[in-house]
Design goal:
Number of helices: 7
Shape: elongated
Strand content: 15-25%
Largest sheet: 8 strands, mixed, barrel
Mean pLDDT: 83
Strand order of the largest sheet: 1-2-3-4-8-9-6-5
Helix content: 25-40%
Structural class: alpha+beta
């Protein structure tokens, strides 16, 4: 074997090793990116959890002192919404338009989870016949992520009440309808309905579109509130839970069952099965590959080693 051939073999082996190392680093980088994406997603959901605001929640006998602290942080906070049997337990905000709180949280800070906000055309004292409250549909059952669950009749039947806090007082909510529509349904997304005839027609529309209803007497003498969020069932779809505001605040039947999120489990517990398989399997596969590659390289060096001839045997070696 000539010196040039030997050099070519060594160069090829070196290039092969470089390619293996590059592939190894590329796969490790992909694993790191996946772990970061999981961590970042977890941070987003954690920031949107109601536990982030429970310190400020107004309660009976508290004189709203903690709530006042939140209002000092963000003066656009004006109320609080709670839906029994869900994780919906958030401060209410309102801005002059409906865009700000799509990506701003209740503390006035930028957040992809946004906030639970009252439609800019609704009154903060809920004196209108109909008021609309918006929030993102999110996984992990945060924000309005559970509104869509009311499409199941058993879920709807088990969760009838909630609470609105505004103007320093609590008012009850009695939910009587769940319906699905689209984001451009101007007949549903209406506010400032003042004529009695239009109010009656609006109630008939909601009840006629409803997937589930509760047999309670709702009339134009009531004030109703619509909780609206995006739907996973259709493009531009919207899910709405509709209730009437009442002077009586019902007791929370879920209070002792720990229904609300009080924190997040570890990233490992939250990861889906495929994520756990990748998280465990890929590093093991990379380690096994590295061991095999190193062993193959060591064996190759042993087999391909060439004993250089003495200077006196050069002519024989070249033959």
């Amino acid at each position: 074997m000539s010196i040039a051939a030997n050099i070519a073999i060594r160069t090829a082996k070196l290039a092969h090793g470089i390619v293996e190392i590059a592939l190894l680093f590329a796969m490790l980088i992909l694993v790191a990116i996946g772990c970061f994406a999981l961590w970042d997603s977890n941070q987003l959901y954690r920031a949107a959890a109601p536990v982030q605001y429970e310190l400020y929640k107004p309660t009976a006998g508290s004189d709203g002192l903690s709530f006042a602290e939140l209002q000092a942080i963000n003066p656009e906070v004006f109320g609080w919404l709670t839906v029994y049997g869900t994780n919906i337990d958030y401060p209410l905000v309102q801005n002059k338009d409906n865009l700000k709180y799509v990506n701003t949280n209740a503390k006035g800070r930028y957040s992809l989870s946004g906030a639970v906000f009252l439609d800019c055309n609704s009154s903060t004292d809920f004196s209108d016949f109909s008021s609309i409250i918006h929030a993102h549909h999110m996984d992990k059952e945060v924000m309005f992520g559970q509104i869509g669950l009311f499409s199941e009749k058993s879920y709807f039947d088990a969760r009838q009440y909630g609470v609105l806090y505004f103007d320093g007082q609590e008012q009850g909510i009695e939910f009587f309808a769940f319906l699905h529509t689209n984001a451009y349904d101007t007949a549903v997304f209406r506010t400032k309905i003042t004529a009695v005839e239009e109010q009656e027609a609006y109630l008939d529309l909601l009840l006629g579109m409803a997937k589930h209803t509760r047999n309670i007497a709702v009339s134009t003498n009531d004030r109703i509130v619509l909780l609206a969020t995006c739907s996973q069932s259709s493009t531009n779809g919207r899910d709405l839970l509709v209730g009437r505001i009442t002077s009586e605040v019902m007791q929370d039947p879920f209070a002792e069952e720990g229904q609300r999120i009080d924190g997040f489990s570890s990233l490992w517990e939250q990861a889906p099965l495929w994520g756990k398989i990748v998280a465990v399997g890929l590093p093991l596969a990379l380690l096994l590959w590295l061991v095999i590659a190193l062993k193959r390289r060591r064996d190759s060096r042993k087999k391909g080693s060439v004993t250089m001839p003495d200077k006196g045997d050069e002519d024989t070696w070249q033959q």
